[in-house]
Structures are given as structure tokens and as C-alpha cells.
Amino acid sequence: MSDGETFCVYGAPPSALADVPSGAVQVSPLVPGAKALETIRPASLAGAVIAAPPGAIERRYVLALALRALKPGAPLIAMAPKEKGGARLRKELETFGCVVQDAGRQHQRICHTERPQVLAPLEPALEAGALQYSPALGLWTQPGVFSWDRIDPGTRQLMKALPPLSGRGADFGCGLGVLAQAALASQAVTALALIDLDRRAIGAAKHNVEDPRATLHWADVLTAPDLSDLDFVVMNPPFHDQGVENRALGQVFIRRAHQALRKGGSLWLVANRHMPYEAVLNELFAHVTPQVTIKGDVGGYKLYEARR
Fold this sequence. Notes:
With 308 residues, the chain is of the alpha/beta class. The chain is 25% helix and 29% strand.
């Protein structure tokens, strides 16, 4: 890190709850282009503010990384909604040897502490939350990535339903890369772009999809990369934004897929049954409405093929 990179911020902590210095280095894996907290030199940071993630393994991993990166005596502010890990923050920091003051505000639990001179062992938390190979899945994965410890049932249904694909395509929100593996099973596929907002997902997918036809992009599907004239898009679009259900998110993914497809190109989509995607599909693919058919409706999921 340069001399100016002495303070870090993880995520988007509410400005009313913590002052983040101007120029603080963003270290969230969900912000494309952010610096990886894993790469920051130990005992080099002058302070950190952490909007702690909800998953217990992921949260302890982030806290351990931050404490490792902080100079002894440097301040750490960590916060989370009470029902999404905030109630456990103080105890988790105390297990690392921190002396903690905490308070509740705006439905968040906010912990103030300093990096102690002597830390309790961080290695168990660092190992548990790192990129790892899962023999049960047969995949590389990392806590915090969508469906990191199992194959999502909806994704599995779409994998079974996919026909042999061909030409140039993309996997929007690729996750660990399992849907990409299914798409690349067809030798007629010439190129596949895997795109995900989560750096950890891209890191795992690099191991899981070792195919010269694949390119991986840590990016927001809605803004990058520049894709056009694709023959197909496959996706299991997200419907949560920072832990809150956002039904419009999948609709935006569908609009982005429409932009990227050539005329006659196909969108293959799986969605939870209650997601309101029919209207936007019919709006965008109106000229081929008779071909917009439900391919399946199994176990709470629905599958679609839509042709541009």
C-alpha cells in the first residue's frame, strides 16, 4: 500500500454511524476494483470501518483480516444489523483479544475497539473463510459467495434443462461457475464470458472453469463488460441487494441480457416461482412471444427460454 492508503473501509457503513476518512481504501469483494483485504500488509493500517457481512464464517474472516492488517492500537469500528450478525459482533471481537465497547443505533449494533498489542490466534478464522476446495462439491468455493456450500436447486434445474448451446455466450452472475460448466459442455460453444460482482466468486470460478473458451470478469453485469451480438445468455439472477429482497434486480438482469443478445439469440433463465419476471420478458421479447415458454416449474422454481 502507498503511504496514503492507511485507512480502509469494508462495504458501505452508514455515514451517520461512523466517520470514514476521505481517501479510505475500499476493500469489499463486492465492489469491483476494490483492493483485496487479504493483500494488505500486516500491521500497516491506521484504522478500519467494517460493515460486517451477515454470514458467521465470512464475518469472522473479515474481522480477522482487518485485525491482522491494523497496527497495534489502531481503531476498528465494526457494525451490522442486529438480526444479521450484529448481536454476535462483540463476542466475536472479544474472542480475538479485543476490548470492545458497543451500542445500538438505527437497528445496528456498533462495536468500537482497538487492535490489541497481542492478538488471539487468527488462523482458524482465516482458514475457515478463505478460498478452499470442497470435496463434497468437487469445486473451489469460499464462504460468502452465493450458494457457497451447495449447488443451488434452481441452478441445478437449469443445468438439466439446457440444450447443447452454440456460439458466443455469457453467464450473468456466474457464482462458482457451475452453470458455465454446463454451458461449456457443448463443443459448439466458441466463447463464454463469466461475470460476477463478487471477487471471491470470480476467484473460485477461475479454478472451476479452466477452459480456454472462458473469460472471467469481476464486474457489475449492468455496466460492464461491453457485450453485444451474443448467441445466448444463461443466468440465475440475484434478487437480494445487501441482504434485502429486490425483485427489480432480476428484471434489470433480463433487460441487460436483451441488450447483449443478437436477434434470434436465446436467454435461458431460472427464477424462484414468486419472482415477477413474466411482464418484462414479454415486453422485451414481444416479437417472439409464442416462443417464450415455461420450460419447467419444479420445486419452487421456474425456467424460461426467451428468444430475442
